[in-house]
Amino acid sequence: MLAAERLFLDKGVEHTTIEEITQGAAVSKGAFYLHFSSKADVIEALRTRFVQNLLNGIVEEVGKQGVSDWNGKLTAWAKACAEGYLNALPLHNLVFAVAPPPSREGLTSNILIDDLAELLAAGDREGAWPLADPAFTAMFLFNALHGVVNQDGVGENGADRARLLGNIAENVRRLVR
Q1: Which terminal residue of the chain, N or C, has fewer Cβ atoms less than 10 Å from its own Cβ?
Q2: Domain 40-175 has what CATH class?
C-alpha cells in the first residue's frame, strides 16, 4: 500500500496504473489482485489505515492523561485528532476528497466518533460534565473539529498551528460545560 500511496499522492489516482503500483511494491499483478480488485479498493484500504492510525495516535495521547483528568483527556483527544489530520493532510485529502467514500456515513458513524462518544459518556458518568446525549455531542464535536482543520492553509506554520490547537482546546472544554 505504501507504493500506491506514494504514487497516488505524486501522480493522482487516475494517472496511476495497477502496473506502476505492482512495480513500486515489487509484487506481481496476481499478488495485487489477491488483496485488491481495483484502485478503489486500495483507496478504501488507505482510508481505513488513515483512520486507524489517527485513532491510535489519539488513544496514545489520551492515555498520557491522569485517570480522572477528564478535561485533559478531552483536550488531548481533540488536539491529537487535529494534529493527526494536519500531519497527514495530503493523504487525508486523497482518501476523503480526491477519492471520496461512497457515502457520507463516516461523518456520523466511524471509529473516531465512537471513541469520542465513549470518552464523553465516561466523563459524564464520573460527573466531569453533564451531557444529555454523549453520542450526539461526539458527532457534533468531531464534525466541528473536522471542519476547522479542513480549511485551506490552516495550521501550516508553527504559530498558526499552536493558535489553532489552543482554540480547539478552549472550545471543546466550553462545549461540555
Answers
A1: C
A2: mainly alpha
Sketch the domain layout of the chain as residue ranges: 1-37, 40-175
Q: Is 28 left (phi over 0), alpha (psi -120 to 50) or beta?
A: beta
CA dist., res. 41 & res. 75, Å (int): 34
Nearest residue to 54 via CA among 17, 88, 12: 88
- What length is written for the chain? 177
d(CA 38, CA 16): 12
- Sign (positive or negative) of CA dihedral 105, 76, 67, 175: negative
The three-state DSSP-derived secondary structure of 69-83 is CHHHHHHHHHHHHHH
Nearest CA among 55, 57, 139, 138 for reference residue 105:
139
- pTM of the complete model: 0.90
Architecture of domain 1-37: Orthogonal Bundle (1.10)
The answer to whether 123 touches 129, Cβ cutoff 8 Å, is yes
Q: What is the pLDDT of residues 9-53, one digit of tens each?
A: 999 999 999 999 999 999 999 999 999 999 999 999 999 999 999
